Amino acid sequence: MAGADIVVMWVDANNKAHIKDMHALANYLPKEDASQDYTLISSNQNNGISSFSFKRKIDTCDKESDNVILTSTTKLIYAYGTSDPTGDNLEFKDIHSASHRGVKSIYLLDLQNSPNALPNDTLTFDLTVDNIELPATDTTYYCSFHEAPKVASRSQIIAVEPVVQSGNEGFVHHVIVYACYNISQKHLQNITLTGGICRTAEMPEYWNSCRHIIYAWAVGGTKYYFPEETGFGFGDEDSPQYFFMETHYDNQMSVAGIRDSSGMRLTYTSQPRQYEAGNMAIGIVEGIFVPPQANDFKVVAYCHSSCTQQWIPEGGVTVFGYLLHAHLLGVAIKLELYRDNKPLEIFAQDKNYDFNYQEQRSFVPYKKLLPGDSLKITCTYDSTKRLQMTYGGEGTLQEMCLTFLMYYPKQQISTCGSLPGFVADRDDSLYTRLSLDVDSAKIPTYNGSVNSFYNYPKLLSNISDWTAEKVSLAQESVLESWPNVYCYLDPSLEYYQQSNYSVDPADFTEIAEASNDYCNAANVRSSSVTSQSSIPTTPSSASYPFTSLLLAGSAVCLLCLF
Known about the structure:
Layout: E1 5-11, E2 17-23, E3 31-32, E4 39-46, E5 49-57, E6 74-80, E7 101-106, E8 123-128, E9 132-133, E10 139-147, E11 155-163, E12 172-180, H1 185-188, E13 195-197, E14 212-218, E15 224-225, E16 230-234, E17 242-250, E18 259-260, E19 263-269, E20 275-276, E21 278-284, E22 289-290, E23 297-303, H2 305-311, E24 317-325, E25 330-339, E26 342-350, E27 361-369, E28 374-381, E29 390-391, E30 401-408, E31 415-419, H3 429-433, H4 456-461, H5 468-480, E32 484-488, E33 495-502, E34 543-545, E35 549-552, E36 557-561
Parallel strand pairs: 16-20, 21-31
Antiparallel strand pairs: 1-2, 1-36, 2-3, 4-5, 5-34, 5-35, 6-7, 6-36, 8-19, 9-18, 10-13, 10-17, 11-15, 11-16, 11-19, 12-14, 12-17, 21-30, 22-29, 23-28, 24-27, 24-30, 25-26, 25-28, 31-32, 32-33
């Protein structure tokens, strides 16, 4: 476990709790830190169950022994033994037994918890599919219509949580809930289909009127509470009367006969909040390719100022939450903000993206987007275990590069992104660098034609020997390609696209990590986080209270932070 930041805890025979801050130099007994930076809050040992609650600073300034807790996914490894240490002897018996250890991805800096109190009139309603049978195929997208509950007055959705049928946790990959506008009961009275396989003849009618994203959930996510000043409205004449749910099922073994009734549970109140919430997607799906045997391949997309000028009001919008999304090859996602044609900040980031742990995260404090801002999303992929090319698409074995932003007040926007220049330009450097025959695949002269979506993969798939040099040439081409930017406006069916407007990637230089040296601050060891309202300006000076750790077995417990 070289490089691990380790905390060891136990309760001795006299019921006294112990905690030690340690680190690993290699795969042998960890070494005790010179600076003990973990603080025990409470402990209990009863009926073979040991529980510990503890805290430490986000940045302990112990650069030799402790890892900084980042705004990224952290991989925790836990293990426990069958006996307590004796004196200074920290030998761990049976601690590496398969039944005594585990691993879990977690976002340690998630300060968004349940609100102080929910309104006293809250009710819930479920959007679930009705015992559908999943096709015996690796990927299925199922789309369904759902009528909003009848309410006496305008109401607002203030919390969302997954409802996954027991036993189907391995099949339900993600769910997106959309609001449907301009649809009335009169429109739907003759419709017999309320659900079916997405983008087929089974699709419920009028689905094109359902573009505004309310919420996106993915595997690993839990219940999410909207901030106390905002929610998503329904129930009056100007609000959606229907919801549209898209469920992605992942069935890699093509198991037949699986039936499912999963979905989402929405909590709502009739007590109005100040702002109406919105949700938008930024990124790219079509136009992604990742060569095989690449361990650090990057794909970029842009939400350009020409789009944000269309929909962000003069005073800007407040962004309070985000969800980063890629598939199996994704290892890192970064969203950068540019203002007045200058780099401003890293807006959101996960350096340790985990496909099996995707959750809605909160900005603390909230962030602001202004008209004319540009956003650049970069996804990093590791395809070292793949022997074939991977393309963008809906399948789990295909790839995506998306960020969902939750904000207020709601605007008429659904999606903002870009398409790489090579999908529609035969003169793109991708083809010349890799000496590809654009005539054989009928790649057009640049005209913004989407037909070329189906052409460029034919050329790339003909390359059988993806050497390190070819991967490097492809990477240079992807990063230098002039993308075409676009955005979808909502709730109308209007489609806005600057099909002949390209962005120069050179205008969006990579934004460096903040270099503030927190550890030299005079008060670096004086502040601690006790509640969300007391978050210090300097995050590294804060202590972060971990959730209590519960383990079966009463002996030594070891927790490793990577």
